[in-house]
């Protein structure tokens, strides 16, 4: 059996994917570079050689999540350059709970100045992309992000999306207020009647 050797870029992508998984499960403080290395199937010194510090690896994972969202929105805008079109695309991203949970961990760690500036730049970049792609006003973009953040939090709590816990009356009520939210996304695998 012949093993295919990964390029440095492919190995870096593999490490970032492992970092997204690890950090989304345990947060910044609760994750070690050794855990990421084990998930990626490499040595811990190799992780440090590529990223120098856990902080740099964490920021790469946050940026990866932001880049994935931006790419999804740009792809969606080619078909439907509206807030609704971008919202539908974000609904698809909610099916990847590690991705949105990674962003939440980035926001939570933003009190650290070395982490905060890049995380704020990532979020600000997403805001600007939404306005650019849709022509939304500042108020429309604010409302779009407010709804998106609520869905992100609900996804991170596993109230919606893959692995969703059984719905509670409050979650049925809250999610029912989202006009156009695909019920398959919101209540995947559950009878929503409570």
From TrEMBL:
InterPro entries: Homeodomain-like_sf, HTH-type_TetR-like_transc_reg, HTH_TetR. Keywords: DNA-binding. It holds the Pfam family TetR_N. Residues 32-51 bind DNA. Residues 9-69 form the HTH tetR-type domain. It comes from the Bacteria. This is TetR/AcrR family transcriptional regulator. It comes from Paractinoplanes hotanensis.
